[in-house]
Amino acid sequence: MNAPLNPTQLRIDVLQHAVATSMPHESAHLHVTGEAIYTDDIAAPRGMLSAAIGYGPAAHAALKSFDLRAVLKAPGVIAVYTAKDVPGVNNYGGIVLDDPILANDLIEYHGQPVFLVVAESHLLARKAARLAKYVLEIRTPILSIDEALAAKSYVLDPVTTGRGDAEAALARSPHRIGGKTAHGGQDHFYLEGMVAIAHPVEDGQIAIQCSTQHPTEVQHIVARAMALPDAKVRVECRRMGGGFGGKESQPALFASLCAIAAARLGCSVKLRLDRDDDMIITGKRHPFQFEYDIGFDDDGRILGADLMLASDCGYSADLSGPVNARAICHVDNAYYLEHVRIRNFPCKTHKVSNTAFRGFGGPQGMFLIEHVMDEIAHALGKDPLDVRKHNLYGLTERNETHYGQAVDDNILHDIVPELERRADYRARRVALREQNKTCRIIKRGIAMTPVKFGISFNASHLNQAGALVNIYSDGSVIVNHGGTEMGQGLFTKVAQVVAEELGIDIKRIRVSTTDTSKVPNTSATAASSGSDLNGMAAKDACRTLRSRLAEFAGKKWDVDTSAIRFVNDGIEAGAGNGVKRWAFADLVHDAWFSRISLSAQGFYKTPKIHWNRDTFKGRPFYYFAYGVACAQVAIDTLTGELKVERVEILHDVGSSLNPALDKGQIEGAFIQGVGWLTGEELVWNGKGVLTTHAPSTYKIPTAADIPEEFNVWLVENSPNREDTIYRSKAVGEPPLMLAFAVHQAIRDAVSSVSGYKASAQLAAPATAEAILNAVMAAQAHRLVPSPLAGEG
Amino acid sequence: MNVLRFFLNGVLVEREGVDPHTTLLDFVREERRLTGTKEGCAEGDCGACTVVIGELSKDSAGRDRVSLSPINACIRLLPTLDGKAVFTVESLKSASGTLHPTQQAMVDCHGSQCGFCTPGFVMALFALFKNETSPTRARTCEAIAGNLCRCTGYRPILDAAQVMYQKVPPAAASCSTDMERWLFSPATTGAPPLPGESELAEKLISLVRTEALHLTSSAGTFIAPRTIEDFSAAVLANPDAWILGGGTDIGLWVTKGLQTNGVIIYTGEVAALKRVDETDTGIRIGAAVSLEAAFHAMNRLYPELAHVWTRFASWPIRSSGTFGGNVANGSPIGDSMPALIAIGAEVVLRRGERQRTIPLESLYLDYKKQSREAGEWVEAIVMPRRSTAGVFQIASYKNSKRNEQDISAVCAAIAVTTERGVVSQCRIAFGGMAGTSKRAALTEQTLTGKAWSETTVRAAMEALSKDYSPISDMRSSAAYRMQVAQNLLLRFWLESQGEPQAVRLF
Hints:
The structure holds two protein chains of two kinds. By secondary structure, chain A is of the alpha+beta class. Chain A has 19 helices and 29 strands.
């Protein structure tokens, strides 16, 4: 039953109408009443204690000694643990073992955990954690990408890859531009901070309840830290209050800390991070710096490209290897780069270790090429949309990526012109330029950007999933799978798949808490792959159950199993007056009575993919998801303030499993992308201390920041050309990158200040200050007097 | 009177020996196991902990009403709820299981994804539902400016704020009690209270005290005097006490600074400090008047400033926070002070029996240094009526990284009177440019007596650079602050000239 599915099986009709409908999130009624249980809401077992982390007070220092006597003496304190108290491996690194759970003798970022204090309450633990005294030998921290590059400070070896002969192509190009740009990091700001609870269980076992996108990794790392076999650690997660990649590799740290304390104390221990501690201790989106040298023809078509991508990985490797790999694999975005050299430097700095964040390097790579597109357009005096169109991957030629994957499902040649029409892009662009001539202070800009995003984990082995479907004898159904629910609606979509497959009312189905003891060895719910992988695994399990039930019914009815239809909350065979019907609850009750197994495992592995991480070649992605956005912004040239006025989006989700949830993912990702590129600014001071560690200083978008005119359409009649679950496409990450349209529109507006003579000197985030600086730089370029210079 | 009494979701809570530092959030989550209210930041900035409080009020017809406002439970100290009604998200669904119109609208509009912020949004929308009959999109944005959602991109939540009014008839049919019928009914204008509201008002009246509330516990004492005399005596007797207004700053001392104080004296129950008195010369606002109510009063005299008050923190913070607290705190980035200084407001200080009134600007000496004496506290703020001589123009501009619920990088307030095209008087104050909100003396001097022209304004912009030496921090650089401050003078001038095209976005 674990054999790969026959693709022809996938082309079944949607009979039940459980998929392709906009049913609400399976927990919506619990969200709105406050009845949905998050990890911190779980009723405490008797005697549960709370823990808090004591963290390093410097960015880079030798930890000579520390004095925890005051911590131990503080009211309510039960115990304090340090590195020497970790029974197994004192490291939570998932790929490279360079992430100590508790620091030994070296502190490599301000916020690095040094000890854990356990107390009678959350507040008492937090108070005690502040009482430690450290003897440190301060070392010079590396706090920027430039410093790291100069010192050749890397977490992993730099990579050089590409295709063709970039140098020669550049040399023979009629036009050539070069430059630098950069973007900042981004805090996940999941509304629910990191939280884990460890319960000691008999015979040395540990049970963990944890807000995590990756229960299996938490299980494996806790087991390793506790020197236990994986089978003695069980991890559960019903739901997260947001993840966005932040809860992929990092929850293992907090779960491990709880486990260490719970095992020693013999009682349950909870560790819930205060928001400031969460933002100080946990990693963020990787900031990148770029250099480029681009050769192009008179149409703006790129002939040669030499690209340098340097990322700030923080102090350890964490997921930086795959994040940088995805940046390399998305530096093309939607454009054919025939001759390209890519150099990538994963820089080590003395900051928190940066990690997965929605897009996972993809947005970073694409930031560069979208900047380049605008620069080319500016150099040639062309509409940037025309330059982008000239560079799109072709349909029959110019359609292989620089890493060797054919782009054979490209729909951008249809959807870019379609959105251009729907958004009335050309006419609005002309009108805004005209308006900018007379509008003295407020300037407007518009831009359209496409997105192509590869779907699958780059590392092929991660593209597998399991599911367990149990039918109870009353006809109710429990589905369990390896995916986690963080708000994206995965549980809803999987329930829809099961309802569709079994032909039953979705009310029969409960998707239960993700649990490592039910489905083992799962991958993180990440890379937008949740529904693709787990939906297929659940479907596989349903197919097994269907064949058992069909065989049972076929014998009873004396019909061929192929004549049995799973529809209308039961099964049917025959037609007209001769139709036979067996209600689902009766059927499964009778099947149970006849000793038919009503529980099945399902398994799925993504076909066709392969990746050679040494040569950076292969087909890492099963398919691509596409989208295009048009954004109009207004800026205030006196203050740099920004308003995103209007946005149109046309996005590809294949055949949608749930249009409402998909639209929610598109809108939410887009606004999150806008936050990354505009107002969300992480500021570190000269000592490597994060000064924006709370929502008072780190500003994610609010309701008023969204465009008043915000039209989002799903591409219609566009089934996935690959045999994915009901021909749908992944949607979690790709729309985040549609936000580039906003950044480019700001650059367009800034450029107007120079009479479009200069391209805007604007990196990201485009805060009001950054925009005002770019405006002032543009004013220096203009030939006509500035309004600030006394123009009447 | 050592017993804290309030209604939580309609049930009377009575507590003795309360640690006065306990937050409402910890109380409902930890002690009452009402875990629908979430902690997202514990500093009043994300709204995941939003609950609604009901307080006794009188309507224009003199009827007893219960006014409902959203607050952040995370920084609201529990003893301040004495005599009030608290509604958490658990209170909305009817006993028969029917979702409240707000909740149903959120479900139908797909307004939740991860769901963690959702109870806070539901309560903010519930407050809106009970206060507005048909809110505009702008009003809705303002009402939920204190609620962060990281998943949805807000569009479906804004939709829900419209749709919730359409969900009333089907939902209301399921109500079985007067209280439910009241909760399920949207705001009305001028209508008499529903029986459920009157019933709650009567319950709250039964909790009204005439004597001070004294809560003592091993962790400290909470005193809520009823009269100015008692209050003043308590402050004199406890020189190290915290004087607590709405707790929107002190709450953070507790949740973030992890501080405690042996005595906390609460302004919020002193009737005389909650008065807004309009006189011939101006409006006198008691120190304990909420920011929301104070701004409403101020808008009557200076409607041009109204827009900046909608951007002052968030509705829950403005509902909890007090005008006197903002002024007494005197933060260099407080947004009410520049405007108050520009209009020439005065502050009434009191120590024991002694009262004195000084210009507000003379209260602030330097960063966290005030001319208040030990034991002296802010009793009221007096706002003068607008100048009638010449042409009086005034504006306040807030500049911050995010437009809603953010701390200003720069906050400007500019009041200029011109007579026959010449500046006869001007008062200009900035926040974020120095250790206190401060007047721009040189700039004012440069403008006064000069023709109100761009040339004059540009000279004033130049002078401004000598008035201030701002700092760089995580909000913005010193250079940006100065540039923006100068440009805001230009904006003011452009607006005063009736520039045909818009000169600002917010």
